[in-house]
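Chapter review: from sequence to fold.
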Amino acid sequence: MKIFGMRFLLIPIILFFCVTSYAQKLKLDVKEHTLNNGIKILMLEKHDVPIVSLRIVYKVGSVNEHPGITGASHLFEHMMFKGTKIFGIRDYDSEKPLLEKEDELISKIATEKTKGDNADQKKIKQLEEGLKEVWKKQKELIVKDEMWSIYLKNGATGLNASTGSDATYYYCNLPANRLELWAFMESDRMKNLILREFYSERDVVMEERRLRTENSPFGLLIEQLNAATYTAHPYGWPVIGWMSDIRNMKKEEVAKYFKQYYSPNNAVIVVVGDINPDEIIKLIEKYFGDIQRQPSPPEVTTVEPEQRGERRIYVEYDANPVLSIAYHKPAVGHPDQYVFDVIEAILSHGRTSRLYKSLIEDKRMAVMARAYGGPSKYADTFVFFCTPRHPHTAEEVEEAIYEELEKLKTTPVTDHELQKIKNQIEAGFIRSLESASGLASKISSYEAIYGWRYINTLVEKTIAVTPEDIMRVADKYFTKTNRTVAILVNKKKGKESTNENKKG
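The token string follows.
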């Protein structure tokens, strides 16, 4: 698809003079192929530089977990870099009995601890000492971060992974002549992953949770907002998992989860760049074709019931106040999602957005005000985040946001403002597709939640949104009964304020 690279040179001119004409031409020529074991391959040629952007997407995220193993998907994001029988270890034959001994000791320690007050503490101590000795011997065999090191030595960039509610992604950009190395390493990781250093990595994730959630006022607020917003759907629990689940997660239980969800028939490989699709198919067939498919993972069937009244929560923390408001909205694929994309831009994109001009610039009530309503696989929320500017309160800012939402319901957005927003949305989206890496990320993210073809109609349907659509959607969803409000309260300052009032 060499012509696509030429289009990028013309984008600024086309966007300026004829927005809608370009949107209708945006058709990614993605080639598809599925192996007999279920692995789906999505390929897009882009021959401007000899680089290939690769993504492996597993259609599993926190939404697929259950109480007791919340955080398993995120933990596996870590474990996938621990190596296989040939990567990350000097001698697997020497390591294997140590892994078996580790499992045996962990099981005995857990069994003894279940006895509570009757547990033999001396026995537990002896078992724990034996476990430390096993770990010491294993550590002598481990080659730390070997897979990362091999990739970097072969010119890889953008090495990373991420876990979300709906999917888990593994990223890599490589010179085109290193594709076979990638296929060999990644197929071995899918076939022969070894859960080494499982318990130490579990501790790493626990520390990550402390840092990002429990010791982060914003992280704590969002976690509590989601928990209050969803009463049934698994979007209500955090991607990183609840601390008690992480702490008690067992290797054998998580291994079953891996086998079920990290199977070839639940995976998508995205390849974008200087490639020949026929050669890519042969390469992936050679290395991934013998991996056994598994029974299809169960679908998430729980549906969040309609909210029938406003919910409010206050989270106490020694930090400045923060406001967050969540409104339920439909999943990706619903026609109203395109309208929410436009509403998000009107309210929150840049210094000319309504929230910025009203709350930050004019009224000077807030230092930060953002809205987000991007798509998800299942029905989710349109969320507002705002940090009040002293001496304004979270409740004052909350009312100011409601005023902006009422304007959306009652006053049509002008043609000038709407066209400006549509131009911004289209320009931003096209810019995200300029690089092979950007294309691979967009294709993989939309494939995970709905199907990559969503990209081909996204801009066209977004710029078709009318002022009437905006008023209708705002009136339907931005209602008191459909919202959950979470406010971070500074407990220390609150006490001081109360004492001052009493003295007065």
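Two observations follow directly from the output. The chain has a mean pLDDT of 92. The first strand starts at residue 31 and ends at 34.
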